[in-house]
Amino acid sequence: MSGSPNDTIFALSSAPGRAGVSVFRVSGKNAKKIVEALIKGPCPAPRYAALRKLYAKSDQLIDEALVLWMPGPKSFTGEDCAEFQVHGSPSVIEAMASAFLSLSLRQAEAGEFTRRAFENGKMDLTEAEGLADLIDAETESQRQQALRQMQGGLRDLYEGWRERLLDALAQIEGEIDFPDEEDIPDTLSHKAYPYLSEVIEAMRKGLMEADKGEAIRHGVEIAIIGRPNAGKSTLLNALAGREAAIVSSEAGTTRDIVSINTVLSGLAVRLSDTAGLRDTENAIEAEGVKRALSLAAEAQIRLAVVESTEPESLLDLISQLEDGDVVVYSKADLAPNFVPDVSRETYSVLSMNSQKKDDVEALRELLEAEVSRRFAIGDDVGLTRARHKDCVKRGLVALERAVEKLGIAPELAGDDIRAALHAVKELAGETDIESVFDRIFSRFCVGK
């Protein structure tokens, strides 16, 4: 942040432009003086909305608005705060901004209100990240996940880890500090093992499910792959309900990735049509094949399209597929006697004609079921960001080292447990990671 944390700041917290109501937010030690200067009178009662006339420094009337005065520490930022709900015309917004600047307020930077709330102990870093995700949420699953994190779900998880690690450390240090005491058993450090095992198991579980949290935040990637002319582009258009990709009988028409965004089972999904997979000497088409393979490797789900008239061509795609992927036998109308092999338990299999609405709906339902099975939100709040995963990975490595050393050198095991505790503190934002703070809060909108 380039400004001083002691500045009193203001920002338009509602969307800019013409609206019925626009909301300005003020936070800082001079917030009360600002309210009194604008309304030319005493502050309203704390946390009660009051209708007041607002005046510029020149005593010119700006607007009549609802004013809320919220003294700290019982406020969003923990500082003295105020809100002004004015009429949302561009001229009123301009006049209010000019009035604040004339009273020596500073325009807030992106995320500065939330950063002050974090620095004043009103929320930890994971809760601040949850708030950012809630503001950006576009689907029901994103909203639910963000709310759980914003309300302290991830904090409750790592606080449980911290308590068990402190218990383990107490057992180890009891043996180290009192080695000759008769009432201190020699195997006291071994009593730390159950605590460590519990946290290690929980961290491993968290990392295993972290991809689910990130997929909910960013959206699920489904890559449509197959040989040229298998019907991939037709399938994408059918799912999109529009001509998103060019369809041609000429093989190799699709040379770049064509994507559509949709929602399946309440999750954001990106469906991507890719170049047909084949050996080619055409440099442009070869690049398209390379990108198709790269996307297939990165996607959470692969949708393999195989012509019903050439079912054996599935063998060419097997190396790209993983458990839970979807195999679609296309152009079913050209092979009316074809019966798809559903013995492959690791894949979902469907035979369809992309021109038939019922078949397209059946595929949509199959994809929704697979997306829901893999990424539906459970009761647990998981890791949702790369930063979370990095902290937990480092903590887990330290604890695995601690377990190895526990019976040999308890004092070294204690050092590893302290390293794990440091990683947990970093997850909460309790350590000095200023560059991380800047990256997180700069992504908030101004006024939040």
- Tell me the number of strands: 12
Q: Return the string of H and E elements.
A: EEHEEEHEHHHHHHEHEEHEEEHHHH
CATH fold name of the largest domain: Rossmann fold
CATH architecture of the largest domain: 3-Layer(aba) Sandwich
Terminus-to-terminus distance: 14 Å
What is the typical, i.e. mean, pLDDT? 84
* Low-confidence regions: 180-185
Radius of gyration: 29 Å
Shape: flat
Largest sheet strand order: 3-4-5-2-1-6
What count of domains describes the coordinates?
A: 3
What fraction of the residues are assigned to beta strands by DSSP? 15-25%
Provide a descriptive summary of the structure in words.
The chain has 448 residues and is α/β, with parallel strands linked by helices. It has 3 domains: 9-123, Gyrase A, domain 2 (2-Layer Sandwich), CATH 3.30.1360; 128-209 and 383-429, Four Helix Bundle (Hemerythrin (Met), subunit A); 218-375, 3-Layer(aba) Sandwich (Rossmann fold). It is built from 14 helices and 12 strands. The strands form 2 sheets. Strands 3-4-5-2-1-6 form a 6-stranded mixed β-sheet. Strand 1 and strand 2 (19-27) form a beta hairpin. Helix 4 packs antiparallel against helix 5 (140-150), helix 7 (192-208) packs antiparallel against helix 12 (386-405) and helix 12 runs antiparallel to helix 13 (410-428). It is flat, with a radius of gyration of 29 Å.
